[in-house]
Amino acid sequence: MPFNIYDFSGTTKAIDQFLYAKMAPTWAFITELAIVGIIILLFYAVIGLYLVYLERKVCAFMQNRVGPNRVGKWGLFQTIADLIKLLMKELITIRKADKLLFNVAPFIVIIASFMAIAAIPFAKGLHAVDFNIGVFYMMAVSSIGVIGILLAGWSSNSKYSLIGAMRSGAQVVSYELSVGLALLSVVIFSGSMQLSTIVESQANGWWIFKGHIPAIISFIIFLIASTAEINRGPFDLAEAESELTAGFHTEYSGIRFAFFFLGEYMNMFIVASLAATVFLGGWMPLHIGNLQGFNHVMDFIPPIFWYFGKTIFIMYLIMWFKWTFPRLRIDQLLTLEWKYLLPINLVNILIISFIVLMGWYIK
Amino acid sequence: MNSVGKYFSDIFYGLKSLWKGLMVTGYYFVHPKQIVTQQYPENRKELKMFDRFKGEVILKHDENNFHHCNGCGICQLNCPNGSIEIITDSVPNEDGKAERIIDKHIYHLSMCTFCGLCVKSCPSNALAFSQEFEHAVFDRNKLTKVLNQPGSRIKKEPKEPNAPKPAIDTVPKSNPAN
């Protein structure tokens, strides 16, 4: 079986051919689905757990603390211990809650982020599905999550949950516009919505460098708007510990609460990897124009490391925002979107279209 | 025009102030030496408590086993939860008069809230707070302590009016609460 850390398409093709040679086409297809599902599920659980750990460590260092350091070396197993605790906790059923929706809501949140992971290109030839409308698919799928949040708030039959869910609805619907328009700027640059094509188009430089100032502006807008879309601080009005106890997941306990928690961190991972893919070249190594020697040295670092490096960098930025900025009020939140981000974004899109039309970006 | 200018200056100053905040947390993130957390059981040997820390009430004794307590009972009166009991004795002094001395200064650590009223109100400046904080014991009777050491006596002041009190330093540094 050919295995090449720089190009996974040979490996995946070999597995595909092996399965189709051994079994009937239907069974081979089902086996492939199962393999991909299990791999993504494991990836999801491990990444989710260690993102929580990473967040706690980053937060601690920014506040002059040590952070978790008792369970395992440097507290590496702290989140696993937390997970075991959450698994053993009682699942409290709420009287007068809408039982079906109450139980389904965490799964909708999880499924939304799970579906989004499928389209992410981790390395060359290493993604589950490669849609020709990848950017559009990511946006559509990630906005399913808000349905889960709204359902959780409604079915809990609690005023805190309902207010939190309504806030979350207003917030996500508003900021989705900015996320979409910021992504659209790169779609205009690269002329494609397929994520693999967008990555390939950055072989001679990432879009954030090639697109000059407009690309940087849309990158910043994407960071702000996506932080709001995943309900993280400073836009964590849906949870709002200070005034709504815990917002939409006030009434949830045990593993159902853990699902919301995990979903939140996975959404952060997805947003970060989308930003890395679209603006920072995804798995593409750092190439500068025609500097052959430099480009060749950069090619020695495997794409998967480039991908995770960029993603972790963006996640660090999002965590940095959360632990620095003061929270916004709900009216300030909507003012920021409708009076600042959206008009700037629209003008930015116009400028980018003009730049692309005149061919002024670095080709 | 003015409102347009304000719009853009708002954006500029908003970003500027956010950047200032990011620099503060970013500085802390890359300077782990600034971490203030004390990792207690590991640093037990070198852990030094602060001068103002109120560990437990002690009666200051000097190296010759002298203290300043004359058994007046003001600390007992001032204690809001009755964690101090003063037992006095009467002995004749060199002039043949009966004089009150302290027999037992009993201190119930289990009832103490560390308010510091006894230390503040002591007229002879005999009480102080120590920096000891590991109070956990398996038997609560051990939390009742006799503060005056066996065989200790009151230190006689030289008979001068308005003489400054000599400081006795069994505690490393004087307590600001005194």
- Major pleated sheet of chain B: 3 strands, antiparallel
The end-to-end span of chain B amounts to 65 Å
Strand order of the largest sheet of chain B: 3-4-6
Radius of gyration of chain A: 21 Å
C-alpha end-to-end distance of chain A? 37 Å
Can you give the mean pLDDT of chain B? 82
Give the percentage of residues in beta strands of chain B.
15-25%
Order of H and E elements of chain B: HEEHEEHEEE
Low-confidence segments of chain A: none
Our count of helices of chain A gives 15
Chain oligomer state = heterodimer
Radius of gyration of chain B: 27 Å
Quickly give the structural class of chain A.
Answer: mainly alpha
Strand content of chain A: under 5%
CATH class of the largest domain in chain B: Alpha Beta
What does this entry look like structurally?
The complex is a heterodimer of chains A (363) and B (178). With 363 residues, chain A is an all-alpha fold. The longest helix of chain A is centred in the first third of the chain and has 38 residues, at 25-62. Chain A has one domain (92-358). Chain A is built from 15 helices and no strands. Chain B has 178 residues and is of the alpha+beta class. A three-stranded antiparallel sheet of chain B has the order 3-4-6, with no helix packed on it. A two-stranded antiparallel sheet of chain B has the order 1-5. Chain B has a two-stranded parallel ribbon with strand order 2-7. In chain B, a hairpin with a 5-residue loop joins strand 3 (84-92) and strand 4 (98-108). The longest helix of chain B is centred in the first third of the chain and has 28 residues, at 2-29. Mean pLDDT of chain B is 82; it is low at 174-178. Chains A and B meet through helix 2 of A and helix 1 of B.
